[in-house]
Protein 1
Amino acid sequence: MARFPLLSSFFCLISIFAASALAFNVSTITFDEGYSPLFGDGNLVPSSDGKSVRLLLDRFTGSGFISSDYYNHGLFSASIKLPSDYTAGIVVAFYTSNGDMFEKTHDELDFEFLGNIRGKKWRLQTNMYGNGSINRGREERYTLWFDPSQEFHRYTILWTQTKIIFYVDEVPIREMVRNEAMGSDYPSKPMSLYATIWDGSSWATAGGRYKVAYKYAPFVSEFHNLTLHGCPVDPIQFLQRFSDVDVCQAKTAELDAADFAVITPERRAAMRKFRQQYMTYSYCYDTVRYPVPPPECVLIPSEQKRFKETGRVIKFSGAAHRRRHRPSKRSRTRSGSNNIINAGNTSAM
Ligand SMILES: *[C@@H]1O[C@H](CO)[C@@H](O)[C@H](O)[C@H]1NC(C)=O
Ligand SMILES: *[C@@H]1O[C@H](CO)[C@@H](O)[C@H](O)[C@H]1NC(C)=O
Ligand SMILES: *[C@@H]1O[C@H](CO)[C@@H](O)[C@H](O)[C@H]1NC(C)=O
Ligand SMILES: *[C@@H]1O[C@H](CO)[C@@H](O)[C@H](O)[C@H]1NC(C)=O
């Protein structure tokens, strides 16, 4: 069982992740400068200086906010702290979408945090839809190398003309490079940024087995260091001018050239390491659902070995399944509070 996390892998990750931990040079804005309340009235609580905002869920309502503009490509980022303790059934979502404007043909890029029972970790899901491709979900799920309810961490969605990158702090955890075959499944219409907290009792935790327990309400999530970088546009006007001159050319070029748009070798190593250790589901490896993986999938054999044909990570149970690891000098075990779940390290289970 993964009760006794291995410090060796912990240190290993810290050093690999620290190597790429140059903070992005992005300016933050206040709540009023870039966002508007979406729902939840009194459960949406901006700080008096406007630099942070709390989203609460209680038995009456969740809450959410939305960027005041639509963006044609952009970098969307916030430092987020999730509710702690008993959080089963809760969903905190940080995502871009244009579902309000294009009901049947919407685009979407998601971070979804799925709460858990006490003592079990939050899980993170990322996803993408393009032009209403709702029957072609592209979900990936992960645990994290830290407890997201204990401190702020930065979550970032980068969406350019050519690629999408999801970052946790400065670690790219997922990259999708656009290709012809994806067609309109690649988001291409201007999107807004959304942040919400809501009751996902019917599915969020163990497929709906554990519901939101309102005796622990209110559940509080906090958003700080709000960042919006992109080309603000009116989506209708924008689409009408689609074939004309690109009004966003300068901004687009700026995004493409930015530091965070480049996955350096160090960042790629950190991404590999993260996915090797913390990814628990990938649609790319779910051959039951997709006998032919969607065109953007890059199948990495060493990674694929960890997954069953359902795309879920194989839970190893004994020596027969033991994988080979590079020995580490720091190798030692310790019981205790730093509950890094070692999704990838079978010897720890
Ligand atoms: C996995 O655990 C073993 C100890 O059982 C350790 O020696 C090894 O370094 C760990 N591997 C990784 C990748 O963390
Ligand atoms: C950060 O960005 C600002 C504005 O774009 C620029 O003036 C500044 O030089 C940058 N700082 C670093 C360390 O790159
Ligand atoms: C906001 O970002 C700055 C610069 O990266 C960082 O030092 C600070 O800790 C962040 N604040 C929170 C609450 O995450
Ligand atoms: C998006 O879907 C709509 C409806 O299915 C279709 O008419 C349209 O051509 C698609 N857009 C693109 C860019 O493929």
Protein 2
Amino acid sequence: MSDTDTLFRCTVCGGPEIARSTMRGDGVRVLFCAGCGMGVVEHRPADTAHFYTDDYYHRAEGSAHGYIDYEFTAEHGLLWTRVLIERLLPAGGAVLDIGCATGFLLSRLGPAYRRAGIEANPAAARIAAEAGIDVLGADVLAPGLAAAHRGAYEIITSIATYEHVLDIRAAIAASLEMLAPSGVLVLEVPVISPTRSNADWYGSSFEHIFYPTERGLRSLFASFPGVYFTGTETAATGFSSTYIGLATRDPARFAELGDLLAAMTADDPTSLAEDDARLNLAYRVVHEFRPTPARIIRLPLLLERYYSPSLGKRLMQLWHGDASRAALAEQPWRRAPSRGTLVRLPLLLGRAIGRTLLSRLRRLRAA
Ligand SMILES: [Zn+2]
């Protein structure tokens, strides 16, 4: 038994036993709790502010921390979140984004939404504030912050943030405290997948503290009385898995979340209602990068409402790039990748974008 074994106490469940450990690319050990399955770095730093300095959202090539092109990552990473918010609160409402960066997600919500954010990076927080976002603070765990906003938000989003905090259980407790009675917490975190490569999580992003597993997340949420939790492992092409989780205290809201999650993750959007199909395409095509002919045929539905230059850039990657071949390589037909299929996909995508642009032009002429 090593020193680590004798000192280990799980931040999430308090359990004393390590089930297994993995060495990260920078030599830091990640320990997985036997009790709840959550993973955490062997030695948590005293504080994490030094990771989120001004170059975090514009990192240098080769740096192990931060983003190379935040706007682009945000566009395909956050579109599904925006579509989901608009489904859950069609008439607007109070939305808090934990880890809001420059306010990318919140800025895209219309004036019907009361928008608040929490952001650790001072320069990004300033830009968010200038865009009219109410920046509550730098850290969800700041003393008194959650109590000051108890029950205030109908939706709280936390996309790629909980893995960075020093205490994931306390951060989720604070988030749940700020949720209105029928409010919804929408989260996405890296997940250690039992079936897919975890190379992105162990080989980069060395600022991460927590390494959630699905079991770890489910047992974490089960420890909050009266909170319902559901979710799904995402499998973005060419990228390690993340986990999208949805939590609420309201049973009716939870039933609705189950329906939305089913629509979002459905394999074939052909028979989905238009609103459900938009959510499905934002998730399956834009976020997961998994185009199929059936998905691309319905893509104009999404583009009519959400087209932007960086979304266009994302779709161009599908059209031209290696990613398209990578996506095809993982599709069920990969054992016989007929030339017809390889040609058909970009053609369908081109037609979908062309149809969207044409109908926009017609509307402009009519106006
Ligand atoms: Zn544990």
